[in-house]
Amino acid sequence: MSLKAFHIVFVGASVLLMLGLAGFSFGEYRETGSPLSLLWSGLALVAASGLLVYGRYFLRKLKHISFL
After folding, report:
1. Cα gap 34→45, rounded to integer Å
2. Mean pLDDT taken over the chain
3. Which are the contacts of 38, defined by CB distance < 8 A and separation ≥ 6?
4. If DSSP codes are grouped into helix, strand and coil, which group holds residue 67?
5. DSSP 11-55
6. What is the model's pLDDT at position 63?
7. What are the tens digits of pLDDT across the range 7-23?
8. Region of residue 43 (left: phi > 0; alpha: psi -120 to 50; beta: else)
């Protein structure tokens, strides 16, 4: 596996983890009403969005390098 392919897999896994954290934190907010849980949920969504933007930038920048 090339470094480019590993990087894409790692960024994808990070996005999924941030979305999972956002969902978990929002569920915690619904149960407890804690504003801190809502804050964590929002921050996780922002982080997931930033990782998606970074992933697209990375793919465009290294489109001439193969995945092998």
Report:
1. 17
2. 95
3. 25, 26, 29
4. coil
5. HHHHHHHHHHHHHHHHHHHHHH--HHHHHHHHHHHHHHHHHHHHH
6. 87
7. 999 999 999 999 999 99
8. alpha
> How many angstroms separate the CA atoms of 22 and 19, rounded?
5
Give the angle 17-61-55 at the CA atoms, nearest 5°: 10
Closest CA to 27 of 41, 14, 11, 9: 41
Residue written as token pair 């407890």: 32
Contact of 41 with 30, CB cutoff 8 Å: no
Q: What is the token pair recorded at 45?
A: 């969504």
Other Cβ atoms less than 10 A from the Cβ of 57: the count is 10
